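Subject: YgjP-like metallopeptidase domain-containing protein structure
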Amino acid sequence: MVRTTSTKGGKNRDKDALAKAQQAVNSIHPCLRLTVSKRARRMALRLDPAARVVHLIVPHRASMERALDFARQNKLWVEKRLEDLPEPVPFVDGAVLPIMGHNVTLHIHYDPKLKMTDIELKPRTLIVKTNKEDVAPRIKRFLRQLASDAITEMAHEKAKQIDRNKKIQSITVRDTRSRWGSCSEDGKMSFSWRLIFAPSLAMDYVIAHEVAHLKVMDHSQRFWTQCEKLSDDFDFGYDWMQKNGHSLMRFGQDA
Ligand SMILES: [Zn+2]
């Protein structure tokens, strides 16, 4: 049970209780992560394909006993969902990465005598010269910057086609888990860096979608008409993201 108490040391006791609960959850399945949520109204299981874990969401007033029962009852579902995830493609020497529609082979040359890491994208190869034993985070940063540059350019290009005073305020490219892109009322956009692994026309559709939101916030017919107008190939892009979007999560994961 997670108790809430205002006495001194109560916080630590809560922490201990949480750690114990997490242990109990892990004994049901090692890839289950306990999340106690103030906003959640009911217990739920949520797959995180990038981290290859399943979050057990528990409302903060719910009993931990019931949460554990819930997890036990759904153990097969958890196993199945994790099994169905596409094979991860870690950033290791020889890995093939589809970068904006072109297959690029990763070549990592490790030399401890080097002063720094140097990354260069060629038409068919991504050449990494490094003194780091684990260069994956550096490669991720490089690709994230590449995604940011490409997305920013395309988004501004599309925004020019919209006759509206409201402009793009900012574009951030981040490690999003649940959405490929978003656009706020005041024109702040964010995109997943993993869109760099989608075919160009699919990335184009996601950008067109968010730019169309500058004009129409909802998903009405008027919105879709606008989105189609801004897309290079709406049908292809939309279908590709629907069918294959989840597979983008496998890049840059550890095997
Ligand atoms: Zn939308």
